[in-house]
Amino acid sequence: MQTQVGLRIDVDTLRGTRKGVPSLLALLERHRIKGTFFFSVGPDNMGRHLWRLVRPGFLIKMLRTKAASLYGWDILLRGTLWPGPVIGKKSPEPMRRAATEGHEVGLHAWDHHRWQKEIERMDPATLTGEIRKGYELLEKIIGRPPDCFAAPAWKVTPEGLSALEQFPFRFESNCRGEAPFYPVTGQRCHCHPQIPATLPTYDELVGRQCTPETYNAHLLNLIQPGRFNVLTIHAEVEGILCLNLFDNFLSQAGKRGIGFSPLGEIYAGTPEIKKSHLAQVTAAGREGWISCQAPLSETCVNLEKLPQ
Ligand SMILES: [Zn+2]
């Protein structure tokens, strides 16, 4: 039986939208693969984020992954000297193309930088406002409601989950983990299922456990048959600097009988969805905390599988 991997494509910046998404769309078409794109549609202030992180740990990471060549100087400076451009206004076409070419399309953020910097301090009205601005612009661009949501930098709080529940997302992908689950925070079980990313990203692995030359083989070995697999790639990385490397990865995966699907498709094939806690943990190669699935022994039925 073929091993299926959910393919999540995060788009954080204007450059990633403009340059990375069209290249990825062409590549995925050539490999006959559909995935799930998560777009950031509001102001691109990611330069602010990257400079804010200039401290020893981040400098080491910059040197290790050559962040300037990975992201491009325009991204490193974006939003630092002048207000960032609204990505969905400057470059809506790649988002529209992803939808018309049959990919699943979700919201990643209104302001990616603000979410990852301030999520812990955002009150319910601010959270709802951020999501609503992104939701409405993305809906206008693609001509239908976004299918799903993925939190920037794998950061979500109980208040964030409650704000997200006000929108008709079929599922969310806000964290790391092992299998789809309903998140429990405090006494509450939230109604949107979570589809966690299970595999590490390029910048977490390269320079730590492998080199760009050994990256594909290393990643392929992490994909386990019979397990739930979700890979996250970035339009800024796999769609620009590592495009050939990713092309090669898809070819090698194909030879090993590994197929790729949108997250909603692999979720729909999951018969039983557990409830799990959502914990804040630190992860190798990541700044600060990330949200992660944590065990809780109780199962409930996958709501999408119930007869209508
Ligand atoms: Zn992101």
Can you characterise this structure?
The chain has one domain (3-171, 197-273): TIM Barrel. The chain starts with a strand and ends in a 7-residue tail after the last strand. The longest helix is centred in the middle third of the chain and has 19 residues, at 124-142. Mean pLDDT is 87; it is low at 51-56 and 298-308. It is α/β, with parallel strands linked by helices. Helix content is 42%, strand content 20%. The structure holds zinc ion. The site of zinc ion has 5 residues, from loops.
Low-confidence stretches: 51-56, 298-308
* CATH homologous superfamily assignment: Glycoside hydrolase/deacetylase
Total helical elements:
15
Biggest β-sheet, characterized?
A: 7 strands, parallel
How many domain regions? 1
The set of bound ligands, ions and cofactors reads:
zinc ion
- Helix-and-strand structural type: alpha/beta
- What is the string of SSEs from the N terminus onward? EHEHHHHHHEHHEHEEEHHEHHEHEEE
Compute the separation of the termini in Å. Answer: 30 Å
**Mean pLDDT metric:** 87
In CATH's first tier, which class applies?
Answer: Alpha Beta
The fraction of residues in strands falls at: 15-25%
* CA radius of gyration: 18 Å
Principal-axes geometry comes out as: globular
Query: According to CATH, what is the topology?
Result: TIM Barrel
| CATH architect. name | Alpha-Beta Barrel
- Helix fraction bin: 40-55%
Number of strands: 12
